[in-house]
Here is the input.
Amino acid sequence: MKNRIKVYRAMRDLTQEALAQELKVTRQTILAIEKGKYDPSLELAFKIARFFGVSIEDIFLYE
Here is the structure.
């Protein structure tokens, strides 16, 4: 699944590590999600969206 996490991270000047710490996951998890190699759980998708203050649809693009 494509996503815009990298874009939202850049807008807040966050590293993968910093975002991972905020979400209580590993940097490798963030990397895998950004590259589309791993689809997050619904709970994690909501956490990411809440963290950035947007809807899940703004971050994750369903094709």
User: Anything to note?
Assistant: Helices lie at 5-11, 16-23, 27-34, 42-52, 56-59. The mean pLDDT is 96. The beta strands are 2-3, 60-61.
